[in-house]
Design goal:
By secondary structure, the chain is an alpha+beta fold. The protein has helices spanning 23-27, 36-46, 72-84, 110-115, 129-144, 188-197, 210-223, 235-240, 245-248; strands at residues 53-54, 62-63, 69-70, 88-93, 103-108, 150-153, 162-166, 176-181, 202-207, 230-234. It is elongated. Residues 1-24 have low confidence and may be disordered.
Length: 256
């Protein structure tokens, strides 16, 4: 397979200016509107150029409108409070390797978006903000490798969109469907088989952690779905791959 061009990293733009949201918007939700540092953190998480806040890795923290920078320990306390209030959620993602510990990656919930006046909605009805976040996270990783992965992509022959579609893969020429698996382990085998029937040449099912991947493999075996065109990976596998061919052509990733 052909190596990916580029460094594999994306340099985030500068933090945007802090803008206060419409005050009546959050009040209508029945929640106590966040103010001060809490509101600044919500804005920071929402910034489209860098929407992936990992408190265990990121430095130097979050800069407040006053100019003060919240360090990791202090930031974690604010995030815990925002999570209890329902403004943010987080997912654990293994990003360095399959054996490494996962980091806590934070995203805005519907209430969090409302608090800053954001109109962002998940790309597909019936999915939540956590799933939407993971889709955008994986799209970000592909983009860092020079690969365009389209959110909610569909083929003319498909009855429904996939989480991400690479049409075609620049390294293999295949039309690649990517499924993001947060908790839907039991339905992933039938969905992957359906994607192949509807014209996708390869399917990658991406889990957040190696523990989740083991659950996924068990479900594929239980369903009797055995096909070398289906690969099961964790997020770290995508980040560390030289090219998609490393995943698609690697028997170690076959889930059947």
């Amino acid at each position: 397979s052909t190596p990916v061009t580029g460094s594999g990293t994306v340099t985030p733009p500068a933090t945007p200016a802090f803008v206060a949201p419409p005050p009546a918007t959050v009040a209508a939700s029945g929640l106590v509107p966040p103010t001060g540092a809490y509101l600044a953190i919500l804005h920071d998480i929402s910034f489209s150029g860098r929407p992936f806040l990992n408190v265990s890795r990121r430095a130097p923290g979050v800069k407040l409108p006053s100019g003060r920078v919240l360090g990791t320990h202090e930031l974690k306390g604010y995030l815990d409070h925002l999570r209890k209030q329902g403004y943010v959620g987080f997912v654990e993602i293994q990003i360095r390797s399959r054996s490494g510990s996962g980091g806590e990656y934070y995203f805005l919930t519907g209430a969090g978006h409302m608090a800053i006046g954001s109109l962002h909605k998940p790309g597909r009805g019936g999915t939540d903000f956590g799933h939407d976040y993971v889709q955008r996270f994986i799209e970000h990783l592909f983009r860092a490798k020079g690969v365009t992965a389209t959110l909610e992509a569909r083929l003319p022959t498909s009855s429904s969109p996939v989480d991400l579609g690479i049409i075609p893969c620049p390294h293999t020429g295949f039309k690649v469907a990517v499924q993001c698996c947060l908790s839907t382990f039991a339905t992933e085998p039938s969905q992957a088989a359906k994607n192949l029937r509807e014209g996708w040449g390869r399917v990658i099912v991406c889990c957040l952690t190696s523990t989740d991947l083991k659950k996924l493999v068990r479900e594929f075996k239980k369903a009797g779905v055995v096909d070398p065109r289906i690969a099961g990976v964790v997020v770290a596998d995508i980040k560390n791959a030289t090219s998609l061919g490393d995943i698609i052509d690697n028997p170690g990733y076959f889930v059947g």
